[in-house]
Amino acid sequence: MNADLLAMVLESADAAIVACDAEGELVVSNAVARELFGPQPPPLDHPLMCALLECSSAGVEVVRDALAVTGATVLVSAQPLFDTQGNRVGAVATCAPLSGVVEKQRRETEEARKRLELLLESTGEGIFGIDMNGACIFVNGSAAAMLGHRREDLIGQQMHDAMHHTDAEGRPYPVEECPIYRSFREGRGCRIDDELFFRADGSSFPAEYSSYPILDRGVVCGAVVTFNDITSRKRTEAALRKSEAKYRSLFETVSEGIYQTSPDGELLAANRALVEMLGYSSETELRAQDVTDLYVDPEDRKRLTAILERDGILADAELQLKRKDGRVITVIENSRAIRDERKRLVYYEGTLSLAR
């Protein structure tokens, strides 16, 4: 094409067109571009020049606020230029101020993105997202802190390799067996609380996590994972198990009968001493009985539970019970009413000993 004709075409174009050579010198800037960016070539650190110099073979599209001399927001679409031997010889870009409607939509989208980021950062839960290849596409501060990484170091990483590579038994954890990855491969969510996550320094912590597929117009495009470090909870559970085992040992070895019953007469628990006292073969057999049927006089239960509900405790009450073989025994009962945090009656518990 004739050079003068090409220059006329560029000057008459209704879009801003700029081009630079391989060294970054601006060699083309048409009339619309000069009106948009000013008559002088922008410096190399100007966002326009950065887009020209940094665009890859796939090109780059960026939106910059207040990029033009008028303060307008500009959409820059840049593409590299290559000679016939494949050598990069420069880049070309078209630039257009965003219209009022488009700019409003862009700002609304940007505000929604910022609100989402604030929401992600305000939670104590770790949250990260992965694409279909398992690479991290976003991560909040809580997740990065729990995993001992800088947030920017996690973006693009294979998250399974970074923090879920080993199972609770110390064996390698194949990615194809990982519930996180199954969630987007199979399109279904999961919730797990018996696995380990690993920190950057190689240490680990018990984690409770959920993984759910990310859908884009009905198509799975990745997964979002939320997790918590449950070290404290696991310690509490272990302490409770130890306490329960100690209580169970005491429960089964004391000579007095110990029980728990519901307000409606269901026997919830009974120790060995009580089972033997009433002549049954096992706790299961005894618990199959209605508590009221164990009383010689069923009215005794009504009277005693009324006292418990009124006073909360029952001390040294004498009553008669029936053994399995029909024999009547006289016992001394000490018990109390157990209520929840809202003062609602939950159950009764107490001890029975043979009257002397």
Summary?
33% of the residues lie in helices and 33% in strands. The protein is of the alpha+beta class and 356 residues long. It has helices at residues 3-12, 31-37, 47-54, 100-122, 141-147, 151-154, 159-163, 179-185, 231-253, 272-277, 283-287, 298-311, and strands at 16-21, 26-29, 60-64, 74-82, 88-97, 126-131, 136-139, 190-198, 204-216, 219-229, 257-261, 267-270, 313-322, 328-339, 345-354.
Give the overall silhouette.
Answer: rod-shaped
Number of strands: 15
- What's the assembly state of these chains? single chain
* Uncertain spans: none
Q: What would the keywords be for this entry?
A:
356 residues, alpha+beta, 15 strands, five-stranded antiparallel sheet
What is the secondary structure topology, with strand pairs?
Blueprint: H1 3-12, E1 16-21, E2 26-29, H2 31-37, H3 47-54, E3 60-64, E4 74-82, E5 88-97, H4 100-122, E6 126-131, E7 136-139, H5 141-147, H6 151-154, H7 159-163, H8 179-185, E8 190-198, E9 204-216, E10 219-229, H9 231-253, E11 257-261, E12 267-270, H10 272-277, H11 283-287, H12 298-311, E13 313-322, E14 328-339, E15 345-354
Antiparallel strand pairs: 1-2, 1-5, 3-4, 4-5, 6-7, 6-10, 8-9, 9-10, 11-12, 11-15, 13-14, 14-15
Task: Walk me through this protein's architecture.
The protein is α+β, with helices and mostly antiparallel strands and 356 residues long. Helix content is 33%, strand content 33%. It is built from twelve helices and 15 strands. The strands form three sheets. Strands 2-1-5-4-3 form a five-stranded antiparallel β-sheet. Strands 7-6-10-9-8 form a five-stranded antiparallel β-sheet, sandwiched between helices. It is rod-shaped. The mean pLDDT is 86.
